[in-house]
């Protein structure tokens, strides 16, 4: 389990902005969908475009790189950081403080996140294959260097990015086009019913298209640890994913239809509803269901869910999520998923376990972890830190993940910053002692720290 409070991974607070509607303007909550739980989640899997040759080179099928880079002979990346750097820069640019929150496309940013992780995985597969071949040939692997090449690679401008960036065989524009297609199907559904565009009819039509026409399904709890259900393009492709990502799809589709949707965290849920000046109308029962229940599904009627206690009045007290908040929630979910997978070989291990065992174990005794999943958790935490640079608990967790992956310099840097901003005096003392031991350990010639080599387990 990830030992971090919900505050460490972002706050679902602020207004989720969309195009204005004539009579809607309101507040937030989380989304669940009311589909038949007896129907198993689709087994369609994202097909990995792998050739028969086990050794891959940096090609269009291996990395979701920019097409204009692939047309010319370019230096082969030596580290995964070289491969992921352009995607991180695009992400930072999209969510920068200079960008107005309402101008940030949630779907587009989530696709950029997926593109970076896919590039990392593809590079890691290639390096793994090359490593195995070299081991069989008893050759010394000379690709262990972690030094940055310093090469000045040119990447597309912001205008070109969505067309040139490839993710699972499609450009970002094509993936966004999937959401456009869904909204057009909803429009056709409304036309076929010969009804107006009141929010109730629009939301019912969205549900019909998503869960009946297209057969989307929400993952069961047993499948939520599969990372593919936490990436937007995978959900659009397999039509199976987490409730949270379905809420993102709902928001994006309704935005295209001119119906602003807002959302907020309510307990463990992320609930959504149409923006309205009269929240009580959301709870008026029509045809056996309230509008709020139509959007959020069975959790509204579940006595064990906080959503069941909501009313029009209490809805006004919720902190509405901004677009940045929603992106932060998506990244927090990725941290949890990847950390849980990374720590699966060591049941019960928490991120902060070494801090509570300073007097019992040497910090040089590392638990068994899955390095690939750990790297992906680190990537998600680094991106979330761009959104929340003052979140000291998140920075602590990032520092601990660097420790687990044996990067002492990065661990010391993040934990030292965390100490300076920590509100808990006792925790600051523990972190100070831990950093001192890290300094000592990293100074030893036999230290296992400093390697940026990654192998899959």
Folded structure, characterized:
The chain has 457 residues and is mainly α. 46% of the residues lie in helices and 5% in strands. It has 16 helices and eight strands. It has helices spanning 67-70, 80-94, 106-136, 158-164, 172-193, 199-213, 232-238, 243-256, 291-296, 312-315, 323-342, 353-356, 371-387, 392-404, 408-421, 425-443; strands at 166-167, 170-171, 217-218, 240-241, 261-266, 269-274, 285-286, 289-290. A two-stranded antiparallel sheet has the order 1-2. The chain has a two-stranded parallel sheet with strand order 3-4. The model is unreliable at 1-40, 42-62, 66-72, 141-159 and 449-457 (pLDDT under 50).
Keywords:
16 helices; 8 strands; disordered N terminus; two-stranded parallel ribbon; two-stranded antiparallel ribbon
Secondary structure: elements and pairs:
Layout: H1 67-70, H2 80-94, H3 106-136, H4 158-164, E1 166-167, E2 170-171, H5 172-193, H6 199-213, E3 217-218, H7 232-238, E4 240-241, H8 243-256, E5 261-266, E6 269-274, E7 285-286, E8 289-290, H9 291-296, H10 312-315, H11 323-342, H12 353-356, H13 371-387, H14 392-404, H15 408-421, H16 425-443
Parallel strand pairs: 3-4
Antiparallel strand pairs: 1-2, 5-6, 7-8
Helix pairs in contact: 2-3, 3-13, 5-6, 5-8, 11-13, 13-14, 14-15, 15-16
